[in-house]
Design a protein that fits this description.
Elements: E1 7-10, H1 14-25, E2 30-33, H2 41-45, H3 61-67, H4 82-97, E3 101-102, E4 105-112, E5 128-134, E6 140-144, E7 146-149, E8 177-178, E9 194-198, H5 202-217, E10 222-226, H6 245-259, E11 264-266, E12 271-277, E13 280-285, E14 290-293, E15 295-298, H7 324-330, H8 345-348, E16 355-357, H9 371-385, H10 389-393
């Protein structure tokens, strides 16, 4: 009897490891291919950042069941940093999965055995071929009965350029630019200097808050927050209406920092060019405005890397590059909710049978992904692969809401005063010094 082919999971991050736990629980062979040298390698790159989801929202149920015989117990409360998420949960989970996880294994392509994208004949009957480039050694390929892509989007940040392409001069800007939340515990690169943060999501807000704390201590430290939208509406999130309180606190504290004069806002600033002025960067907007800065932190979101999936038949939304069945739920042009209806195997299916994209990558370019969403995705997908169609259809998740569901607003609307930001009650601002989800 031929040996059963494994399900190949791409990525050993939170959703990839959870997928492996569900597959193991159902006694299905699995191989997890991780490009990094350690579990959750992408999370480790933002290990200094505190999550706005609490521990109960960060642990997958099947993973917890797999860990329990080792004496592990789930942390019950608190908001961990990325590093603590790894230490207290993701690394132990990877340890239990053992040799099922292969490190230093970058996936360079996925196809069907003997079939390129054009061939119909017998396509679904052929196993997947997964091409792998190890960090050390020669390339090889694996055969798989199914593939779950949980590779995330961390490796492909969006550029500063307002048209979705790198701004003119952006690739040459060098060390003045960074595309991740810096570790502000190393203050030398920021104190006494001018930093521009480009972006409007939770990562941008986190960076703005950390820089504002420096500015409060040192008047020589200045901060500009560059928003592409002409209005500040929705820039401060759901506030007290957010069912994830720490996420709501981010926006409230950001508004307080702006009101206190610790952060300057540049609305409607759409970067066209980045020039050099000695060691400083000069951002030039499409309307001719300029901002000169010592450092530029670009936090404009991420996009999926689809390059290694070019031989598969995918059905993606042309705007978001997400599976078409969930795109309308996560499209930031339609709404600005930080959570959406739970999505399962039926929503994530493609014309290529038994191939699924899960986790943050399943949202394409949309910024509203939550870990809980991914755990529900992999539970449903694994149930479908196991032939448990009833469990695959069942919804076992109720998501928290942001309280900000009125749409993204008019992109070119005239600038609104900060006090008019949607859903940010001015009477209940949190103390700016209160620790929340800023870098640890």
């Amino acid at each position: 009897m031929a040996e059963e082919l494994p399900v190949v999971v791409i990525g050993a991050g939170p959703q990839g490891l959870a997928a492996a736990a569900h597959l193991t629980e159902r006694r299905m062979p699995v191989v997890v291919l991780e490009a990094g040298r350690t579990p959750a390698a992408a999370v480790s790159e933002w290990g200094h950042v505190r999550l706005f989801s609490g521990w109960p929202e960060l642990v997958d149920a099947a993973s917890a069941r797999l860990l329990q015989p080792t004496g592990w117990s789930a942390p019950e409360a608190g908001f961990p940093t990325g590093a603590l998420w790894i230490e207290k949960y993701l690394a132990p989970l990877a340890g239990v999965l053992g040799e099922r996880v292969v490190y230093g294994a970058r996936v360079t392509g996925v196809s069907r055995r003997g079939r390129d994208r054009l061939v119909d004949s017998g396509r679904g009957e052929q196993p997947f071929t997964v091409h792998v480039q190890p960090a050390d050694g020669a390339a090889y390929r694996l055969s798989a009965r199914a593939v779950i892509d949980a590779s995330g989007t961390w490796a492909t940040p969006n550029p500063a350029g307002a048209d979705g392409l790198p701004a003119l001069g952006e690739p040459e800007a060098g060390e003045s630019l960074s595309y991740r939340i810096p570790d502000f515990r190393d203050r030398a690169g920021f104190e006494g200097k001018h930093t521009v943060v480009v972006g409007s999501g939770h990562s941008a807000v986190t960076a703005v808050l950390a820089l504002a704390q420096m500015a409060r201590r040192d008047p020589g430290t200045t901060v500009t927050w560059a928003l592409r939208r002409a209005t500040t509406a929705n820039a401060f999130g759901g506030g007290d209406a957010d069912e994830l309180p720490a996420r709501g606190a981010l926006g409230l504290r950001a508004k307080e920092a702006v009101d206190a004069g610790l952060v300057s806002l540049a609305t409607g600033f759409r970067t066209e060019r980045i020039a050099r002025d000695g060691d400083r960067a000069v951002l030039v907007a499409e309307d001719g405005r300029t901002i000169t800065a010592d450092r530029v932190v670009v936090l404009t979101g991420f996009r999926p890397d689809l390059s290694f999936l070019s031989e598969l038949r995918l059905e993606l939304d042309p705007t978001l590059q997400a599976p078409v069945r969930i795109a309308a739920e996560v499209d930031p042009n339609v709404h600005s909710c930080g959570s959406v209806a739970a999505t399962g195997a039926a929503d994530l299916a493609h014309p290529e049978p038994d191939f699924y994209v899960v986790g943050a990558k399943s949202y394409g370019r949309a910024p509203t992904f939550l870990a809980l969403t991914g755990y529900e995705q992999v539970r449903s997908v694994v149930a479908q692969l196991a032939g448990d169609h009833e469990a695959a259809r069942r919804v076992e998740l109720s998501l928290p809401d942001t309280g900000v569901c009125g749409g993204a607003g008019l992109f070119d609307a005239a600038g609104a005063p900060v006090a008019g930001a949607c859903c940010v009650p001015s009477a209940h601002l949190l103390s700016f010094s209160q620790p929340a989800t800023t870098p640890a």
